[in-house]
Amino acid sequence: MRGFRLLTLALLALLAVNQLAWAQDEDDMDMDGAEGGDEDYDGDEGYGGGGDGYDDEDYSGDGEDGEGGGGSAEIKELTTVEEFDAFLNDEDASVVGFFAEEGSALDDFKATAQGMQWDYRFAYTTSAELLSAHKYKSAAVVYKPPRFASEKAEKLKARYPGSDFKNSDALKIFLREKSLPLVGQLTWKTKERYSSCGLPLVKVFFDVDYELNPKGSNYYVNRVRKVAEEYVGKLSFAIAAIKDYSYESSDYGLTLEEGKKQVGVGIEDGDKRYGMGEAEFSPASLKAFVEQFLKGELTPTKVVEPYSPPPPGEDDEAGDEGGGDVDESGVTVATPDNFEQVVEPSKNVMLEFYAPWCGHCKMLKPEYAKLGKEFEGDESVVIAKMDADEHTPPAGWEVQGYPTIFFQPKGGKPTPYEGARNAKEMAEYVRAHKVV
Fold it and tell me: How far apart are CA 169 and CA 167, in angstroms?
């Protein structure tokens, strides 16, 4: 962790040569304002209140990016104000390149964006109308997700303080730092960003549902934000949907079930996990828990054991939770040698990238095996897995953590699967998205 921080500082130092441009952009941000945010935010409203400074009911997480919340394989071009606003209205951060003309700078931006397309949402514009409205001529700007960002508590956008768009490492570090809102949502994409920022992560688990209960979800986000404002630079804060992360609850001494009105709180600090216990959630109880953590008064509910390779000849998964006697006959094993045959365009393919030492992968294993058995008789569907620790994932299958699951419909492109990790919901997803 310390080494990563030193590397981060070193790369950020290289960007200091553009400090004047950065300072000018801060002025522009104050002057320009930004779309979205929590304009109606009121932390004291009751359940069902909370500000949602945009129309939640019109929001569609899929947008134009395709079903399942993944990113398009092509970098979008924005030509109108309506397209620009629609692109930004997403649950994840958005990166927009502004260019006065076609040329090498735009080509470099596109090339860099192409290599990061599974990490962030990218678009670009050469529209004179948009360039004039946003006062940029050659710039990359990251916009925090309007669902979570609050103009009253944070900057809603930030301009990359550099002009060399070939430097993908520097851009990655910048985006990790500037794309996360004060309170965001834990997803397969943001999990890596939170891990890389080097701060302990406060997780608030509840039934996040922006489809059926946006105001109820905002109710908790607003209350978490009231606490998060006091710990900028010390802690990161994120909400986590119980349906997606209930498998983590035991790490924090919590028992959480989807569909129940429960709120659980935990802190992830390196290899240590801390749980708030059964205390009723409120800004006051959350702050008290955070203060105890910062003062070193808490005992970890779990310490994650470092991975040690098993002795030669032993099954790495034998005896581990999720391993052992699991019938995986319905799951096809993909390797670099057979990848094109397994992930063929004429099939609907669900593909898991895993690591043998990954605890969450072991917990997923029996559910994924059930999924494979579910589709054994369906010749149009392939349920497959690949050891991404032993084999490098092919281009276009960007893996940032374990497990990572993609779905590639017949004749289509791979899209990250962000739903619940149980056989029932994964099967429903495959049936809903497969092409016959």
Answer: 6
What is the per-residue pLDDT across 236-261, written as a single tens digit (0 to 9) for each?
A: 999 999 888 877 888 899 988 777 88
Strands of 168-321, DSSP E: 183-185, 201-206, 236-241, 264-269, 272-275, 302-303
Beta strands in 121-263 (DSSP E): 121-125, 138-143, 157-159, 183-185, 201-206, 236-241
Architecture of the domain delimited by 332-433: 3-Layer(aba) Sandwich (3.40)
Sign of the four-CA dihedral 312, 313, 318, 324 = positive
Fold of 198-303: Glutaredoxin (3.40.30)
Domain(s) labelled CATH 3.40.30.10 in the chain stretch across 2-178, 198-303, 332-433
Contact 118, 398 (CB under 8 A): yes
Residues 6+ apart with CB under 8 A from 17: none
Which amino acid does the sequence have at 133?
Answer: A
Nearest CA among 124, 135, 172 for reference residue 15: 172
Peptide bond into 310 cis (omega under 30): no
CA of 143: how far to CAs of 12, 33, 74, 177, in Å? Answer: 19, 11, 19, 12
2-178: CATH class: alpha beta
pLDDT tens, residue by residue, 124-161? 999 999 999 999 999 999 999 999 998 888 999 999 99
Q: Tokens 């105890």 correspond to what residue?
A: 292
pTM: 0.60
